[in-house]
Design brief:
With about 170 residues, this protein is an alpha+beta fold. It folds into two domains: about 110 residues, PH-domain like, CATH 2.30.29; about 55 residues. The chain contains five helices and seven strands. A hairpin with a 5-residue loop joins strand 3 and strand 4. The longest helix is centred in the last third of the chain and has 28 residues. The termini are close together.
Length: about 170
């Protein structure tokens, strides 16, 4: 049976704000309405096929691509690390461990401040992770700071126990 302090638990899973999907959603409704109205009502040199192809291109470029980019990035905070996953087909995963400690910088533009958003930059040495357009960035920063502190305290305790009894780690295997 594993020690509860050693279990990795999920604290939060989130994505960047979906505010960037409002305009594509409005555009989708407008293209659907215009296509429905113009279908079979086009002037002579144009055909319905041309209308449907143009509507499909607009929807693909202005609706599907922004949604794909939004859905392709996920942020996961656990009791041990922060994981940023990118991509829906080809996945790329970046991690930062809480035990190593890292700097947390909150960057907020005026527009982000009005919407309650912010970008968190987590940097440890040369590696940097960005959590873009996060809701309530102060709460996320506080949660990450707390996890860094807890993980460093637990790592320190474990190092002290191991120094006091070097066979303790061997017994757990």
């Amino acid at each position: 049976m594993s020690d509860p302090a050693e279990q990795e638990l999920r604290i939060a899973t989130f994505r960047r704000s979906a505010i960037g999907l409002v305009l594509p959603a409005i555009l989708l409704i407008a293209v659907a309405g215009a296509t429905g109205y113009l279908l079979t009502n086009l002037p002579a040199p144009f055909t319905d096929t041309m209308l449907l192809i143009a509507a499909a291109v607009v929807i693909l470029g202005a609706v599907v691509v922004p949604w794909w980019l939004w859905a392709s990035r996920t942020y996961l905070v656990t009791t041990r690390r922060v994981i940023v996953t990118q991509g829906l087909v080809i996945r790329r995963r970046s991690e930062l461990l809480h035990t190593t400690g890292y700097a947390i910088e909150v960057v907020r533009s005026p527009a982000q401040r009005m919407l309650g958003l912010g970008t968190l930059r987590l940097s440890e040495g040369e590696s940097t992770l960005e959590l873009r357009s996060v809701h309530t960035p102060a709460l996320v920063r506080e949660t990450l700071s707390d996890q860094i502190e807890v993980c460093q305290i637990l790592a320190h305790r474990q190092a002290q126990q191991l120094a006091a009894d070097p066979y303790l780690d061997y017994d757990r295997r």
